Amino acid sequence: MGRASRAAQKVPPVSVALARPERTVFASEAKRRGLGLSTTIRTLAFERINELREQRQRERAMDWQMERLRELIERIHADGFQETSQSEIDAIFAEAEELDRSASTASA
Question: What are the pLDDT digits (tens) for 42-67?
């Protein structure tokens, strides 16, 4: 880790020209944060990059979910919407409870 990390830290700084209004905004934010101007600009840049990455991730997740929803809707339209009666649901739960009771008495 020694040489590679030292070499990576020795990159030349990036210089950005700021108009007075932008510099004033950054300077007041630096003061609010208790940081130097360059550190504040770097921190704000990283914060914004992370916000953009998270936004893209949420957008990808939303796209994926919407695609799954579209597929479900198409399947419902093709196959119809199948309903289950309350008695069928009750029977499924009753069977599961019976299996659970049988397993409990068998292990006791």
Answer: 999 999 999 999 999 999 999 999 99
- Cα–Cα–Cα angle for 37, 40, 43, rounded to 5 degrees: 150
Q: Note the pTM of the prediction, 2 decimals.
A: 0.57
Q: Check if the beta carbon of residue 33 is closer than 8 Å to that of residue 40.
A: yes
The rounded distance, in Å, linking the Cα atoms of 41 and 105 is 68
Eight-state DSSP code of residue 15? -
Cβ proximity of 18 and 26 under 8 Å = yes
81 three-state secondary structure: coil
**In this predicted model, what pLDDT tens digit does every residue of 19-46 receive, in sequence order?**
999 999 999 999 999 999 999 999 999 9
Q: In whole angstroms, what is the distance from residue 77 CA to residue 71 CA? A: 10
Q: Which residue has the tokens 């893209």?
A: 56
Structure tokens, 47: 């914060």
- Contact present, 75 and 65 (Cβ < 8 Å): no
